[in-house]
Amino acid sequence: MNLRGARTRDDPEINFIPLIDVLLVILIFLMVTTTYQRVAELQITLPEADAEQVKQRVKEINVGVDSQGHYVIDKVVFNFTTVPVLAEALRRAAGDEKEPVVVINADANATHQSVINVMEAARVAGLIHITFATQSPSK
User: Global pTM?
Assistant: First the structure.
């Protein structure tokens, strides 16, 4: 008894073209992401020296501002009158240094205007590098 009728049976066929495409993509991915170590053509042993490098440290001008508005420039108490007078004091503290850094150590309760006075005086004095000192909160 023939239940299948007149249909012919197709044999399954394996198509290798999609498999080759996937393998090529994987190969390209691996080639692009792999780092190659370049082996030096010459073996060079560098000379040794015990001398320390001298770091050229930039001069810092420490300006302290307390909560009452008193100023201290490099451990010298300064009575603020005007911004140009403060700028002249900053110039004297800088001396012959070309680009000193002005470090503002302001009290947390210091007025905003007293910090702005220091910044404005630094601008008038031609000191363009300004930073603020902070402390980490105690644990």
Answer: 0.57
